[in-house]
Design goal:
Elements: E1 15-21, H1 32-51, H2 71-80, E2 85-90, H3 106-113, E3 120-122, H4 134-146, E4 152-155, H5 169-178, E5 181-185, H6 204-210, E6 215-219, H7 226-235
Parallel strand pairs: 1-2, 2-3, 4-5, 5-6
């Protein structure tokens, strides 16, 4: 780490499991869903910043709050905050554009990872699965595993369908066969038009039971339904 790191040097390995790539969505600003998404972000930032003790914000660089497509800017932020490796997640959010456009492609993500493969990891966003066709999602899953060596993937149900939608079973089966780790957003979607009801953690119970070999990471602890997720995880070691 550089001398300007906010944290002391130690022997711990630190990984950011979901570093979001938003991309240049200026050309998509005319979509009502995109405008709704950004209004929600503003609503989220207000209470977070008001309720955060000032010392907790000490040391945050202004550059960390600005959009910057340069991979070197990501590395600089990682060094400041003591992060060794980051899994880069391209945002899909196709629900915001009526499923006509994706914010960032998995190819865009790979181009950044390939600049520093020692610090970045592929995390292809496989969403939406049902809306774009389960067969297409399975093809892309296999491509990133077999051709590019990806090991961790993201599924964002709020833009797609219920976690336990039976139509997704062929996808889950293939993911289990390939031995990948599947991150799934659980709990509320903070950014409409995403539907929170698609991501309730109790729905994960069906998937974990029918695919006990599939490695599942329930992101955001199912908040605010953390107790529900804890009960699911108690019964399923693969969660």
């Amino acid at each position: 780490m550089g001398d300007d790191s906010l944290f002391e040097q130690d022997d711990y390995f630190k990984i950011d499991p979901e570093m979001h790539l938003v991309g240049d969505i200026g050309p998509l600003d005319h979509f009502p869903g995109v405008q709704m998404w950004w209004r929600a972000i503003d609503n989220i930032k207000r209470p977070l910043l008001l309720g955060t003790p000032p010392d907790a914000l000490a040391g945050i660089e202004p550059a960390d709050l600005d959009k910057n497509p340069d991979p070197e800017a990501l590395l600089a932020a990682m060094d400041r905050y003591g992060v060794d490796v980051a899994c880069l997640l391209p945002e899909s959010m196709m629900d915001t554009t009526g499923y006509s456009s994706r914010w960032v492609s998995n190819g865009d993500m790979a181009a950044v990872v390939d600049t520093h493969p020692d610090r970045f990891m592929y995390q292809p966003n496989i969403s939406p699965i049902k809306q774009r066709g389960v067969d297409n999602a399975i093809w892309e899953l296999e491509y990133w595993v077999k051709e590019r060596g990806a090991r961790i993937f993201k599924f964002y149900p709020p833009e797609d369908t219920y976690i336990n939608d039976p139509d997704l079973w062929p996808f889950y089966r293939k993911a289990g066969e390939l031995g990948i780790v599947l991150d799934i957003h659980t709990g509320f979607s903070w950014v409409p038009p995403g539907k929170s009801k698609y991501a309730l953690p109790i729905l994960l119970d069906d998937v974990a039971r029918d695919f006990p070999e599939l490695k599942l990471v329930a992101f955001h602890m199912g908040y605010p339904y953390c107790d529900d997720l804890n009960m699911v995880a108690l019964g399923h070691p693969n969660v």
